[in-house]
Amino acid sequence: MDIKFRPHTREDIPYRMKWFNNPRVTKYLGASSQKKATKKTANKWFDDYEKESRKGTKKFFTVFDGKIPIGLVGLSRIHRINGSTDLFIIIGDDSYIGKGISKTIMNFIVNEYGFRKLGLHKINLGVFSDNKIAVNLHKKIGFKIEGTMKDESFFDGKYHDLYSMAIFNKKK
Ligand SMILES: CC(C)(COP(=O)(O)OP(=O)(O)OC[C@H]1O[C@@H](n2cnc3c(N)ncnc32)[C@H](O)[C@@H]1OP(=O)(O)O)[C@@H](O)C(=O)NCCC(=O)NCCS
After folding, report:
1. CA-132 nearest atom, ligand 1
2. What is the pLDDT at residue 102?
C-alpha cells in the first residue's frame, strides 16, 4: 500500500460523486448526505470550496493508494485566531475499508497538516453516536467527546445523537 495525499481538485469530482452515492459512506453522514449527489451538486460544492480554499478557511485532500483515488479528508472552518477547525474523512472505495488506512489518513490530517503545518490548537469533528467505526477510530487517534447534541439530525427513519469530539495540539 502506498498512501499519498494531494490537494483536492476539480478533476476529482467524479470520484466525489461516486463516493457520496455509496450508501456505506453516507449511512451516518446526516440528513443532507442522504440526497443523491449529482454533477450539479458536486460542481456547486467545488465552486464554494475553491472560494474558501483561497481564503484559507477550508482545505481538502484526495487520498490515493499509488495512483488509485480512494478517499477524501479535509479541514473546514479553519479559524486562525482561535486555532480551530472541523475535520471530515471518508474512505470512498469499499476495498480499502477495514485495513487500518484510516489511522494513516487521520495522522496526516491531524498531526502533519493541522498541527504541524498550520499550527492549529484544536481540531473538532461531529460524528453520529451510532457510527461506531468512526467513533472508535477517532477515540484511538486521541479525540475526546466534549458533548452530545441530542436528536441533532433525522435520517433513516429516526433521530440521531451527534457527538462533538475534539483533539488538542499539546505544543500550541
Ligand atoms: C470512518 C472510516 C474512514 C474508517 O475507516 P475504516 O477502514 O472503516 O476503519 P478501520 O477498519 O481502520 O477501523 C477503525 C477502528 O474502528 C473499530 N471498528 C472497525 N470496525 C468496527 C465495527 N464494525 N464496529 C465497531 N468498531 C469497529 C476498530 O476498533 C478500529 O480500530 P482498530 O484497528 O484499532 O481495531 C470509514 O469507515 C468511512 O469512510 N466511513 C464512512 C464515512 C464516515 O462515516 N466518516 C466519518 C465522519 S466523522
Report:
1. 25
2. 97
